[in-house]
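Histidine phosphatase family protein
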Amino acid sequence: MGTLYLVRHGQASFGAADYDQLSDLGQRQSERLGRYWAERGLRFDAVITGTLRRHAQTWAGIARGAGLELSPLEWPGLNEYDSGAVIRAILPGRGETSLGDPHSPEGYKAHFRLLRDGLRQWMAGTISPDGMPRYTDFVHGVTSALEHVRAHHAGQNVLLVSSGGPIATAVGHVLGLSPDATIDLNMRIRNSAVTEFQFNPKRHHLLTYNTLPHLDSIELRDWITYA
């Protein structure tokens, strides 16, 4: 049996013009995870990441913290969906700015309420957000990465760095969950959280989901973030 560690990127820049950039806290979360694993002697045989900047920055932080020098395999199918495009698809003629300040409680709730609704419609095939693949193609991008791991890394420890949507999709696929259940997983996954799959050449099995062992101390409780 091998073990696949799926890590959501560290805190990015929610509400900023460029979300695809780790915040200072996101950098610290990533390095802390790497140090946590190094302290416990965990090493990886291979690393796979999406191609987004926040994925590369998260891997770089983990590598610094753990003293790792592996070159990651970049897998575009592990990139996140475009939440802005999803929301715009169900708000014709209106921009995201109509939701108000994303940093306010009201704006934050409105953003994720509409995102949840838009994801349901995209998954059902009733909307086609600009610049995004069909949901079935998005799922294939994720499951093809899982197939690659099973085919090429039997018995090894593999690290996969991605985003909440692809990780929730992977869990939903492995467990055979409904679209609504998969969305619920997506909405709850935390920055730098670790999900573990055990795998053999035929299938993956879920071991843990959305854990933060590297932040499990009172002094680091303010490091726990979701967006």
